[in-house]
Amino acid sequence: MTDALHRFRIDGPHGRLDFRAGRHPSESLPYFLCRVLAFAIHFRPELRFSRGVCVGEEPAILSVAAATGRMPLWIDIGVPGRKKLSQGLRTADRVILYTHRPPARLATLSLLPGAERIEAYRLDPAFLTAVAATALLPASRWRLALAGDRLTLNGLVTDRRLLPPQSAEANTKLIQP
User: Residue 76: which domain range?
Assistant: First the structure.
């Protein structure tokens, strides 16, 4: 089985991005779209996708400072295990999680030492379904905008509410229509 390679052209908060992302046959479409959106939202030149969907304790997206080898940004997708997130908290300056799963699935994350440092975002599955229907065409170009609590992608709009980090559910910033 081989990855399906998708080309993304995104005009967004970081200018014009043009990159390819491979979708592993075992990777769900919502997971893949969370990964691509997280990459575009948090883009910086040293950001890269990991070597694969299930590569040990490596996050889905990471950046490594060339001079120091330090990891400034660790972005994971879905509902990663405690061991994987603990490693992110130990090795990265900033840990971000994107999921399309219900917030209750993240409940045990609040028990991790340093859990208050995890920025958790939830992308509503209905929003991702709408994105998939319009944005995975071969010649598609995405227009991504972030304005306060509002995320707009190709005319599809969703709200982004920030919640205080008292628990895993409260630490989940919901991005829903």
Answer: 4-176
Number of domains in the chain: 1
What is the Cα–Cα distance from 92 to 85, expressed in whole angstroms?
A: 10
Q: Please report how the helices 125-135 and 29-41 are oriented relative to each other, as an axis angle in degrees rounded to 10.
A: 80
Contact in structure between 167 and 159 (CB atoms under 8 Å): no
Closest CA to 135 of 1, 64, 32: 32
Q: Residue holding tokens 């769900």?
A: 28
Q: Measure the CA–CA gap between 94 and 71, rounded to whole angstroms.
A: 8
* CATH at 127: 3.10.640.10
pTM: 0.85
pLDDT of residue 52: 65
Give the mean model confidence (pLDDT) for residues 37-49: 91
